[in-house]
Design a protein that fits this description.
Elements (H helix, E strand, L loop, with lengths): L1 H23 L5 H5 L6 E3 L9 E6 L4 E6 L2 E7 L12 E4 L2 E7 L7 E7 L6 E4 L12 E3 L1 H10 L5 E5 L3 H9 L13
Length: 187
Amino acid sequence: MRNIGAATLLFVMALALSAASAFADPSITDDQVNRLRHGQYIWHPELAPDGQLSIRVDLSTQRASVYRDGTRIGATTISSGRRGYRTPTGVFRILQKDKSHRSKKYGNLPMPYTMRLTWDGVALHAGGVPGYPTSHGCVHLPRGFARALFKEARLGTRVVMTDGNSDSHMALADNDPSGSGSTGQAE
């Protein structure tokens, strides 16, 4: 009987240790982000429920990550500007939000959950994400991710768009305590 009790105790302790290590680092890893297939996303705002939101878009990998106070709370695949319609790099702010925006430039096409970054038409919004650049310069997001981000993001939220060389742009993103940069031009 004593061996069964000891074995049960060891099993319960191992289970508790395993559960504790599973929750020790609940962050979204680079490996998880890199494994996303086109149209897939991860969204866990509970990892950092409060604080300042920022968004990083990597045009070279066709991925975006959302951070709250430095903790990644979401990641997704994207589709950026195709040849001839380059998505600009730089540091931007969300200037305007429109849940059911329609394009004035491209035949009244729906652009749900639009978060405008420039006054000349670049925005984050729900759209096709086939695994390669297809847009006219905007950043297309999977619909569920766009909906969740639209709910969380505020006007003025910082968006850093890079071509894979993030060092200089992230430095800009971290060195503007004034909250300026909402001119609609890359900072």
